[in-house]
Amino acid sequence: MNNLWHALRLKVIRGTLLANFLWTLLSLAIGYLIMHIGLEDRMTDYVLKDLKENLNFIARPFQNQTQASVVSWCHSIEQYQGKRFTIIDQDGVVLCDNYADVDDLVNHSDRPEFIDAMEYGHGESNRSSSSIDKLMLYASIRLQDGSSNSPFVLRIALAQGELSYYLSKMRSLVFKNLIAVLLILSAIFIFSSLRVGNPLRRLENKLSRFDIQTSKNLSSFPQGEDEWEKVDLSVDRIYHELENKIDEVEASNDKISTIVDSIADGVIAIDSEEHIILTNHNFKKVIDLESDIQLQGKSLIDVIRNVDIRNALQSVIKNKAPYSMQISLGKRAYQVRVYPLLREMGAVAIFHDVSQEQLIQQMREDFVANVSHEVRTPLTALKGYSQILSELSPTETSALTEYTNKIERNVDRLTALFQDILSLSVLESRQTITKENLNSSDIVLSVLSNIKINYADKNFVFIIDNNISTIHGDCILIEQILTNLLDNACKYSPENSQIMVKLFKLNNNSIIHIIDQGPGIPESSLTRVFERFYRVDESRSRAIGGTGLGLAIVKHAVQKHHGKVSVWNNDQQGTTFEVSLPNA
Description:
There is one protein chain. The longest helix has 49 residues, at 11-59. The model is unreliable at 1-8 and 211-222 (pLDDT under 50). By secondary structure, the protein is of the alpha+beta class. Helix content is 52%, strand content 20%. The chain has helices at residues 2-8, 11-59, 67-76, 112-120, 160-208, 227-262, 281-286, 300-303, 307-319, 355-391, 397-429, 440-454, 475-492, 538-544, 550-560, and strands spanning 83-89, 94-97, 122-129, 134-144, 151-159, 266-270, 276-279, 323-329, 332-341, 346-353, 436-439, 461-466, 470-473, 498-506, 509-515, 564-569, 575-582. It folds into five domains: 1-209, PAS domain (Beta-Lactamase, 2-Layer Sandwich); 218-251; 263-353, Beta-Lactamase (2-Layer Sandwich), CATH 3.30.450.20; 358-429, Signal transduction histidine kinase, dimerisation/phosphotransfer (DHp) domain (Helix Hairpins, Orthogonal Bundle); 436-582, 2-Layer Sandwich (Heat Shock Protein 90), CATH 3.30.565.
């Protein structure tokens, strides 16, 4: 009772109870009225149907019987459960009636059930009987006299007074049931009020304690008049507050996503169940995935197949301690640092690409090793020749001259080596170059004049096929490109052979071909001739005095022009070096 009292103290509960009670009462009253109106008609229809079925059953044995035998049967029966049986001939004359004396009955040819039976075989009606002064329900059937073939009608009737008695009892029973239903529903409503009232009061108390001080514009919310309205308005306030918080979180997430995506390293974060929390675009590049593929929520094992990475992440989640390692994925090398996410109970991994650093380090080591090797040989020779000179007497002029010349050649070799190293270093350190339109004929002739002096004893035939007037580029670098390529051609070409310099335009590019008649380059070495200190034939290259840096300088000078350099073997003999320089 105490809970019921507390529940009924809630305005919304009182209103709900009253509304439910009134609606239930109204519904039951309408239902009873509809039943009251329709029950008599339905009962009448049902009784008529029952009378016709009984009549069909009774008439079945009298098919093809004489009219006299049916009349005899009628005289033999008494009143039975209020049912009246009548035999009427084809002229409407009553031959038998178990309720009245036939002499007192008028002709029935005008009775509707008789007319329908004679015309259609069956008939029915609901009317007052003038013979016995009662409301009756009639059903009739046409029969055939077995001897004379003349038709006659068998009629059955039931007084409506019997029907009204049963209707009254049924209405009373239905009314009592409706009262019982009303009481049961009232109890259910009260029980439901108890079930709803207590949680509603607790919900109202919790919502009233909800801290909305950080919300803006909440003072404009109206105060509710009943408990449900208060709850509804409180939920609106909470929803408004949550919307603001969600907007703030989404804005914060967008900022974080932008910041994470701007990081040059690949980043992936997972939770303790090894599901991906976030990644950035560079991580997708690390594992070679399209940037529009969504990884959030996927399992780590479905995204990363590398066992070392998964083990590192699992170790950090378990031990909550940072971990670092270096791995190779495809052709790239990465320094991977993994850190624990303590609040999220997960881990974040950062993939720093160290491929370029490793390449630079390897190139530095190779360069130092190659320079050391290239310098050691002439220095060793210089030391040896110096020791020999110190042991010779001044009178041995021919020997002195020989060893002095050898020392001079090794000094020249060192000078050329360091000159090429310096040229290469300057090229790599230059950020920009100054381009201008250069007279192609002048620059080619200038370079060739120097080359001819250096190789005057080999009697080369230089052929110039110049189809362009200008070359767009840096004057010093263009001269260096032509000098190194022509010098390389002269070194490896036989005496009295031809060396062609061909210039033409193709697709808005200036093309330079240096074509020699040398021994050619093995196919395996064609892609490596532009590497520093690379020699196809070490012994032959040292014999002709090459430093191994000339073609590397050509490649870097061409790249400074955003051009391309390539080489191939000719069909008959020799090689062709091609330089392609953009005209603008």
